[in-house]
């Protein structure tokens, strides 16, 4: 199955199941040992890996409002597939989950948090684009999603992005997300029709209350909101823009990027990638996706 079709299948599976997620983001406890912690790992002197391993701690950015991928629970910790991928990488540095400092990184702040050193790396439904590559070095991708639309379940008028040409229809996405630029070409009046909030959960609330007619972002994010809606939301149409999720690190740190890519490759071989998926997204979409072809570190 192609990654494009797999993203559709994942979203469709969630829409049909309409799972009720718990406040901690669904799946099992995020401390059940998905990521093994390396004992006394050895890294080249002066490398980011050596610095982090010596410190025994790492700061990682993720989403706090995206069910199944990065959702902050009542215990104050995020849970989801992005979180588990980050734990696998930290574990290879010899850093346990309890020694990770999690910082919320909504779409609009991800680039600057890396540039300012507020996060050592970011796993936050972070789509790799050519424009972002000018500011960020990306490891991965570790998952391929695709842009789609979410509407209320009783909406029969909106069946895809071309349905949004009608003036007056409102579509919501997050500030700083690639989806805003992608969607503009489908709208009759982007200035009037496009609504943006700092986080996607506010878009879901706006859809629920009728302030907007649709929400757009990648299928991975929307699958969580569909599941959490208890049948009130659905996704419509095919995916219309590929969104490969990457792990953002500071621009130019090629050595760290290559280390992360090696960890991703190894995670498939040792089963931790599959374990992370089944633990977080597996109830909604049982088939574990294939690790995409890794891109260049630059």
SSE map:
Elements: H1 3-17, H2 48-55, E1 58-62, E2 65-66, E3 70-72, E4 78-79, H3 81-92, E5 100-104, H4 110-115, E6 121-127, H5 130-133, E7 136-152, E8 171-174, H6 179-184, H7 190-193, E9 194-197, H8 200-208, E10 214-218, H9 219-228, E11 233-236, E12 242-250, H10 254-270, H11 272-280
Parallel strand pairs: 1-5, 1-6, 8-9, 8-10
Antiparallel strand pairs: 2-3, 3-4, 6-12, 7-10, 7-11, 7-12
Helix pairs in contact: 1-9, 3-10, 3-11
Entry summary:
It comes from Streptomyces himalayensis subsp. aureolus. With 298 residues, the protein is α/β, with parallel strands linked by helices.
Give the key terms.
signal; D-Maltodextrin-Binding Protein, domain 2; Glutamate ABC transporter substrate-binding protein; disordered N terminus; Bact_solute-bind_prot3; 298 residues; Solute-binding_3/MltF_N
CATH superfamily of the largest domain: Periplasmic binding protein-like II
Mean pLDDT: 89
Largest sheet features: 9 strands, mixed
Q: How large, in whole angstroms, is the Cα Rg? A: 19 Å
The helicity comes to 25-40%
Total domains: 2
The outline comes out as: globular
- CA(first)-CA(last) distance: 29 Å
CATH architecture of the largest domain: 3-Layer(aba) Sandwich
Number of helices: 11
Q: How many β strands by DSSP?
A: 12
Low-confidence stretches: 1-32
Q: And the CATH topology of the largest domain?
A: D-Maltodextrin-Binding Protein, domain 2
Strand content: 15-25%
